[in-house]
Amino acid sequence: MKNKKYNNLINGQLQGAAEYLSIFSPIDGSLIGETPSMSQKDIDGVMEAAKAAQPSWEKIPRKEKAKLLYKTADLLEQHVDEIAEIMMWEIAKSLKDAKNEIIRTADLLRYTADIGVESTGEIISGGSFDSTAENKHAFITRKAMGVVLAIASFNYPVNLAASKIGPALMGGNAVVVKPASQGAISTLSLIKAFIDAGIPAGVVNSVTGKGSIIGDYIVTHSLVNFINFTGSTKVGEHIGKLAGIKPILCELGGKDAALVLPDADLDLTAKEIVAGAFSYSGQRCTAIKRVLVTSENADKLTNKLQKIVKELSVGMPQDNPTIVPVINNAAVEQTRLLDEDAIKKGATAILPLKIEKNLVYPTLLDHVTGDMDLAWVEPFSPILPIIRVQSVEEMIEVANASEYGLQSSVFSNDLQQAQKVSNALDVGTVQINNRTQRGPDNFPFLGIKKSGIGIQGIKYSIESMTQMKSIVVDM
Asked: Which of 29, 324, 363, 459 is at 20 to 30 A from 200, Cα to Cα?
């Protein structure tokens, strides 16, 4: 598996490039493989192939499209061990979690196929609005956007790519996938499954390369009709500016808060917070990134969190621990700086920061305040700040002061109070007595403010990547 050259799948064929990029493992720094470093001219060829293939793909009956997604899902399950091994070495995800991601992706594709087949149009009578238009009827259908550019992030290189590709295909689009450089080999394994399943040439393609050369070029390419991006807010904002009026769907950063109300079940709360904050070393936009708790519960909750976090397994992903190496040195350095700033300004290290190369041990800081960067900046590492407040009202105020608005968790035994607080939070989704998380994949998934644009989730993604068409007939 290691030291292999991996090529892009373009117009149904494997294609390389004049130059290649080396991919090194976050586990031990070893060379995993090489991916093509494409030129802008190479990109033109991919876009032209996708554009040419799309009209024929759109005409294929949805049931036939669905069969191909089912076959792709079957192939993923057949090769789960092989793909999980690649993912483990490439992004340091535990082998168990890598396998779970692939199985979840297979399920996602099957459900996407089912929803896509069931999608129907509607007929609207003009007479329901205007009695003089009783004989007018609007036949509402949905048409493909055309060529969808799907840009995935490193942390879920198979699932996040498939959550873009599957709905785009069921909507009749052709897809060009740009994976993150770290994670590209895993994503290419997914693309191969689509091609091996029988997806027609040109309908699903992949592109890899240096962002400085092809990044802006693919976003602004005249043959791209829709952009679906998952990544940082900084890059998302840049893409938004470049896209102009081109429609986009973006899943960006988060600073998800856990709001612990005075009547919360602290045992349940602590368990859910730890699972939400520390799985895959916190390298998720949906991870709990801060805890807001009133003073009356702060000491008790902190003690419970400390006990659970101290028991978390730490190590190499081959051994399936909770805490694995973070993706790169930049993530390590960001964590170090956030910790130093917080400690300097008076935070208490309940579990102090410990770093071995790019293995960051779970870190728990109490008495974090609003003048510390850790209260507002999103880390992609296992560091969790506890912010003490005096009231539920202050809790809501601090939560809403963030520039992000992805998710929050509210913990309370009073459902009516929990719903009241949930309604006051400026986020896309609130989880009551549960950790923040993406799924289930049939639920809407969205962020507001700097956490995203548009709505994902299988049904909603299909709708986002298709355009409504109205045909009015005077009977």
From this structure: 459
Taking the whole predicted model, whether its pTM rises above 0.90 is answered as yes
What is d(CA 279, CA 266) in angstroms, rounded to the nearest whole number? 20
Q: Are 62 and 116 in contact (CB under 8 A)?
A: yes
**pLDDT at position 3 over 70:** no
Give 177: exposed, middle or buried? Use CB within 10 Å, 0-12, 13-18, 19+: buried
SS3 content of the chain, % helix, strand, coil (to 5): 45, 25, 30
Is 132's pLDDT higher than 80?
no
Q: Is 285 a catalytic residue?
A: yes
| Cβ atoms < 10 Å from Cβ of 258 | 29
Helices (H), 92-172: 95-118, 159-170
Element (H, E) at 143: strand 136-144
Query: For residue 1, what pLDDT is reported?
Result: 60
Catalytic, out of 34, 251, 272, 378: 251
Q: Is 463 an annotated catalytic residue?
A: no
Q: Catalytic: which of 90, 101, 285, 378? A: 285
| Tokens found for residue 38 | 């494409």
| Cis-peptide into 200, omega within 30 deg | no
Cα distances from 321 to residues 57, 268, 325, in angstroms, run 43, 22, 10
Contact present, 77 and 103 (Cβ < 8 Å): yes
**What is the tens place of the pLDDT at every residue in 71-90?**
999 999 999 999 999 999 99
Per-residue confidence band for 122, with pLDDT thresholds at 50, 70 and 90: confident
